[in-house]
Design the sequence.
């Protein structure tokens, strides 16, 4: 989130400023283009128009807002060594920073719940996760993110320094605890619980499907043997067997897709959490014990 500026700043080192500008500018451009590509990919391919992919688009939108509206000013702040945009914009910038980061983390939380439902109920998933429920979930994500981010704009912060070239992160203890819990720890707990459940369900379902596959193969071999011996009794058993095989095949295909998606998103979520965890561990401790 927002870094604390140094209280005293030296003249800008041109060579250092250019190097930082190239590196940070490159990262910002890469982030903007990457998130735009994600959004366009879903928008331009009809087979990706699903609730799960809408959640991914929401994640890309939050990250696009962060990279396009927050990070450029962060880069200038880093290069200059002081805040050059005034007190009011500092407060708005910090609030947008918290809004985008919180929406991104909560978006991952929604995705983890979605993957749990997909793996646990692959056949019933379309009736459980409807488009209307998906939209409601995304509205809740942004509403909660807004509630967490706007507190400092209404006075829930420490007194601002007189020097307007200093743009500080909000160190008010109550808000620090509130934002850390709402923006990270509660979503993290939900994410961990959901992916633990996904692992347990996937392991159980995999064993069940493998067992069903072996039984199905065994039955097929017996039928083949009977045909070879010309001892197949007349009746409707073949129709029933075909229906069971079709149902089993659909269930296996849906479960395999959901499991693969859960694995991929689990890796993404894991990397994201590892990147954020140090900040949210240090922030509450650092503000309670500054020295």
Sequence:
């Amino acid at each position: 989130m927002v870094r604390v500026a140094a209280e005293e700043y030296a003249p800008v080192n041109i060579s250092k400023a250019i190097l930082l500008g190239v590196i940070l500018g490159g990262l910002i451009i890469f982030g903007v283009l990457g998130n735009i590509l994600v959004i366009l990919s879903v928008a331009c391919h009809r087979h990706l128009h699903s609730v799960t992919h809408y959640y991914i688009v929401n994640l890309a939108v939050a990250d696009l807002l962060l990279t396009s509206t927050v990070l450029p000013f962060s880069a200038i702040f880093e290069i200059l060594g002081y805040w050059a945009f005034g007190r009011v914009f500092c407060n708005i910038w910090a609030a947008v920073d918290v809004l985008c980061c919180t929406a991104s983390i909560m978006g991952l939380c929604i995705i983890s719940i979605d993957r749990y439902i997909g793996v646990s109920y692959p056949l019933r998933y379309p009736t459980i996760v409807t488009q209307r429920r998906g939209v409601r979930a995304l509205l809740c994500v942004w509403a909660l993110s807004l509630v967490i981010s706007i507190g400092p704009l209404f006075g829930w912060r420490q007194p601002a320094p007189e020097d307007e070239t200093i743009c500080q992160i909000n160190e008010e203890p109550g808000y620090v605890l509130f934002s850390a819990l709402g923006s990270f720890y509660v979503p993290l707990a939900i994410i961990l619980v959901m992916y633990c459940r996904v692992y347990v369900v996937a392991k159980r379902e995999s064993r069940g499907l493998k067992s069903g596959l072996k039984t199905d193969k065994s039955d097929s071999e017996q039928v083949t043997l009977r045909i070879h011996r010309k001892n197949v009794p007349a009746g409707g058993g073949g129709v029933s067997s075909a229906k069971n095989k079709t149902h089993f095949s659909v269930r296996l295909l849906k479960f395999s897709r959901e499991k693969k998606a859960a694995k991929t998103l689990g890796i993404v979520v894991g990397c994201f959490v590892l990147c954020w965890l140090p900040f949210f561990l240090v922030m509450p401790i650092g503000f309670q014990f500054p020295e």
